[in-house]
Amino acid sequence: MNEITVLVIDEHQDIRSLLSRGLDGIPPLHVVASTGSPLEGEALAARWQPDVILIDLKVRGRYRAEVYQGIGRASPRSRLIVFTSYLTGEEKESLESGVSRCLLKGMPLKNLAAEIVKSLEAQPALNRDKLRN
Predict the structure, then answer these.
(1) What is the DSSP letter of 129?
(2) What would the pLDDT profile of 52-87 be if each residue is shown by its tens digit?
(3) C-alpha distances in angstroms, 94 versus 37, 59, 63, 99?
(4) pLDDT in tens, 99-109
């Protein structure tokens, strides 16, 4: 299988570092960059055009949708995967904002890697032009 590039966006530096190092060590994944900032995440997405963007930001409501849509527009072919500690009930809105899947933290890294690979096999890339603004 070809290399799968990943961008990690997580507000917690320790988690971000663990995810980045851990996932980068599981072929075919390659973490190209990581950040805790939504704005930097958008810029990194535009620069790297990764296959997958793994994201956990403690933002809610309309701003969350705007963040996901902005990152999705910056890298239209990327799959956005929310990887969070808890579900908030806003997952449907996240999916409508361009997120491919919502996964819970706590799973072994090998399982997360398998879910990342599965997300690329499961569905065609989203047409972000059709997303709500």
Answers:
(1) G
(2) 999 987 665 567 778 888 998 999 999 999 888 876
(3) 18, 11, 11, 6
(4) 778 888 889 99
Tell me the pTM: 0.83
Residues contacting residue 64 through CB under 8 Å, at least 6 positions apart: 57, 90, 93, 94, 97
Rounded distance between C-alpha atoms, residue 104 and residue 55, angstroms: 11
* C-alpha radius of gyration, the chain, whole number: 13
Number of residues assigned to the chain: 133
The CATH number that applies at residue 52 is 3.40.50.2300
84 neighbors 99 (Cβ within 8 angstroms): no
Number of domains in the chain: 1
